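@channel anyone free to eyeball this complex?
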Amino acid sequence: MDPKIKMDALYVPSSDVVAREIEGELILVPITSGIGDLEDELFTLNETGRDIWDKLDGKRSPRAIAAELAAEYSAVPGEIEEDVRGLLEELLKRRIVVEGGGR
Amino acid sequence: MSKAAADKPGLRVVRGGELSLSGESLLALLEAVLAKGVPFRFRARGFSMSPLIKDGDVLTVAPCGETRLRPGDAVAFISPLNGKPIVHRIICLDRGFVVVKGDNVAEPDDLVPERDILGIVTSVEREGKKVRFGLGAEKRLIAFFSSRGFFEKLLSVARRIFRPATQRRGR
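replying in thread with the prediction:
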């Protein structure tokens, strides 16, 4: 079963992921079995995904991130919340983010 | 500024082999992964270490850590010439500097400060199989012969012998 996001919890990028901006794109390299493998699956985020990623600082909940983005994007908050939830669930499923924070 | 027209947030999954990375980009990822103290696996490009490391071989480079560098080690380093990552073999070390050279190159590279050595090649894979020759005890001999241009001469002879018949007829 896919993990569910708690909209008031805190999430941070996993320490087992290397994120680097490469040629205008954020590339995420998971450290799998103790190795950073460029021949294996890597991940990239589009610009909107990048905006969410940048806010995953362990201080802002998904709901707070969605509220900030709703203001920035002039969008309906409910819609943005669903987008944030969807992306974070995907990231959590792949262990790119983990629950935790307060840093 | 409004971002009303922004796309839905998306995560794209790519196979590393599908990415066409510049030398600078590869260096950024290599450094970032090694800085975490874990090895980095990637596809090598170029012919300067042929025939022991060929174009398209998959290399694993481990952080140097406490490992003492030795002649014969194949290492990834930052080229003093253009700042790009290169994998060549250590010929000798002297007072914080390293002389490195591609097995298939006539001249050594410029002196490389030891701190610019990013990591040591610990594994070479070709078509899914491990290639061990060149990483064991024999590497010191390879470095010795390489420093004397042995491989370059050998390859030059091999090229003459095995030159395609069409080229030989065209002489």
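from a first look: Chain B touches chain A at residues 2-4, 6-17, 19, 21-22, 25, 28-29, 32-33, 36, 38-43, 58, 60 (CB under 8 Å).
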